[in-house]
């Protein structure tokens, strides 16, 4: 068993009424959309954390109820007895901060002097096209889940239920555990996932009010799903530290970004001094938002080519690396409370099976953020490059493992599946585990095997599981302020 520390977490149960509103709102606006032909862009693989799930997982089949099964998944002799899924929210609107920067850029385009020579020659003035392109984003959107994000969640629910029908059986529905971050996009993602399960159980029937659903509303638990907000060492040394993202700022003023800055200024016919790396990045992300939210390839996509996109992807990855990944130890260490929680669920399921009891929580669904998943994957040793990502080794990192868009696109998911194997030769072999990242079997970081004995997996991560004392790990070093000589 794991140490008692961190076992009992303060869980704030959201008022049923508030979550009911979120679910009813989600349901009232949705139609269970059939997959449509996707609008694609050559830039799509490079949008980092703004990447569409289907661009990071192109093997998805059109029918979510007949999902593609990874051939590495265990079957026949071993039965899945528990699934713990950590799920990033679905596609969302830009944040209010991003919208303000886009509005600033749009204002620059509208105020510029058009190139009469280009127009007289009948050429295309991309700056004019963008100035005329409707700016439909509004401050109220501020990172909220969009209809495409609800569809992401409904279809993920259908695929997981179809892949693991015994775990997602109608009998188990009342025993589902849903935990979510307090952010609306996560609460709404949980509601949309439940709606997808309702469609799986009751095809064609309208879903009931959340208060009438057997599994009840999701529980809000930010200590688990937004652990970074509760870690003072991370907040002080990284989040609020102006020098923590040195490499991000240095890359913005480095030769790769400066070349893009000059090129974009020429294309848009605006003074280069009026632009900066942040505005260039928001223009790039606007291409991604238009694609993801509306399925539209806007003129913003025409501003950049693939070489530009690779540089801008690296800028985004630098931020994720230094703020959420391997850049600082506390980034990943702050997630150990969530890692412990996952293994406490698995431990309990093993104990119940060994005692011939039914598993009380066969499915645990936890809805969070890219900032929830990346630190956890780093803690587990995944996607670690031999050399750190820096402002000065862009070319050397062209084939890096740490590419956030391939790891944590919208609706990304890290899944632990615990199996009970009846014909095991030894008691140790009776319980086995597989992990899936974005519905594909994730080989173990330390062995590259696709399945592990549960005891072996726990033993590999023993030091993390046993040493995690989040109050101590996140405590700032005490400073001696005495005047003693």
From TrEMBL:
Signal sequence range: 1-18
Disulfide-bonded cysteines: 78-421, 287-301
GO cellular component assignments: endoplasmic reticulum lumen; extracellular space; plasma membrane
SUPFAM superfamilies xrefs: Phosphoglycerate mutase-like
Keyword Cell membrane recorded: yes
Domain of life, per lineage: Eukaryota
Main location (coarse class): membrane
InterPro entries reported in the protein's UniProt record: His_Pase_clade-2, His_PPase_superfam, Histidine_acid_Pase_euk
Gene3D superfamilies for this protein: Phosphoglycerate mutase-like
Keywords of the record: Cell membrane, Disulfide bond, Glycoprotein, Hydrolase, Membrane, Signal
Gene Ontology process terms (BP): intracellular monoatomic cation homeostasis
Catalytic activity: 1D-myo-inositol 1,2,3-trisphosphate + H2O = 1D-myo-inositol 2,3-bisphosphate + phosphate; (2R)-2,3-bisphosphoglycerate + H2O = (2R)-2-phosphoglycerate + phosphate; 1D-myo-inositol 1,4,5,6-tetrakisphosphate + H2O = 1D-myo-inositol 1,4,5-trisphosphate + phosphate; 1D-myo-inositol hexakisphosphate + H2O = 1D-myo-inositol 1,2,4,5,6-pentakisphosphate + phosphate
EC number assigned by the record: 3.1.3.62, 3.1.3.80
Any one GO molecular-function label of the UniProt entry: bisphosphoglycerate 3-phosphatase activity
Family: Belongs to the histidine acid phosphatase family. MINPP1 subfamily.
Stated name of the protein: Multiple inositol polyphosphate phosphatase 1
Chain's gene name: MINPP1
């Amino acid at each position: 068993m794991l140490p008692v520390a961190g076992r009992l977490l303060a869980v704030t149960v959201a008022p049923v009424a508030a979550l009911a509103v979120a679910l009813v709102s989600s349901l009232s606006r949705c139609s269970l959309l059939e997959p449509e032909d996707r609008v694609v862009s050559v830039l799509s693989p490079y949008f980092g954390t703004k990447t569409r799930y289907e661009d990071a997982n192109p093997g998805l089949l059109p029918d979510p109820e007949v999902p593609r099964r990874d051939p590495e998944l265990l079957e026949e002799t071993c039965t899945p007895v528990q699934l713990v899924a950590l799920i990033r929210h679905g596609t969302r609107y830009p944040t209010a901060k991003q919208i303000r920067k886009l509005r600033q850029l749009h204002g620059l385009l509208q105020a510029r002097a058009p190139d009469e020579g280009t127009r007289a020659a009948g050429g295309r003035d991309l700056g004019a096209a963008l100035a005329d392109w409707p700016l439909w984003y509004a401050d109220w959107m501020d990172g909220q889940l969009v209809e495409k994000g609800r569809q992401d969640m409904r279809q993920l629910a259908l695929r997981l239920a179809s892949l693991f029908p015994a775990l997602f059986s109608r009998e188990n529905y009342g025993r589902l555990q849903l935990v979510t971050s307090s952010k609306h996009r996560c609460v709404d993602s949980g509601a949309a996932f439940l709606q997808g399960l309702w469609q799986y159980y009751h095809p064609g029937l309208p879903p009931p009010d959340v208060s009438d659903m057997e599994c009840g509303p999701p529980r809000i638990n930010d200590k688990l799903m937004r652990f970074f907000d509760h870690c003072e060492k991370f907040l002080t040394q990284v989040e609020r530290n102006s020098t923590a993202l040195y490499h991000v700022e240095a890359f913005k003023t480095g030769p790769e970004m400066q070349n893009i800055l000059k090129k974009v200024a020429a294309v848009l016919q605006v003074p280069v001094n009026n632009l900066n790396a942040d505005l260039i990045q928001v223009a790039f992300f606007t291409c991604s938002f238009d694609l993801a939210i509306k399925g539209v390839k806007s003129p913003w996509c025409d501003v950049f080519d693939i070489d530009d996109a690779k540089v801008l992807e690296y800028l985004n990855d630098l931020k994720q690396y230094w703020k959420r990944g391997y850049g600082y130890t506390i980034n990943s260490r702050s997630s150990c409370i969530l890692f412990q929680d996952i293994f406490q669920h698995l431990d309990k399921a093993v104990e119940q099976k060994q005692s011939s009891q039914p598993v009380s929580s066969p499915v645990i669904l936890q809805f969070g953020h890219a900032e929830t998943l990346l630190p956890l994957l780093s803690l587990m040793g995944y996607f670690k490059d031999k050399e750190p990502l820096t402002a000065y080794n862009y070319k050397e990192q062209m084939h890096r493992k740490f590419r956030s868009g391939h790891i944590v696109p919208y609706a990304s998911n890290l899944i632990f599946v615990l199996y009970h194997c009846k014909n095991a030769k030894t008691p140790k072999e009776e319980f086995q585990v597989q992990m899936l990242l974005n519905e594909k079997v994730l080989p173990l970081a330390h062995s590259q095997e696709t399945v592990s004995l549960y005891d072996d997996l726990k033993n590999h991560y023993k030091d993390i599981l046993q040493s995690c004392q989040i109050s101590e790990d996140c405590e700032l070093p005490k400073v001696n302020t005495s005047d003693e000589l």
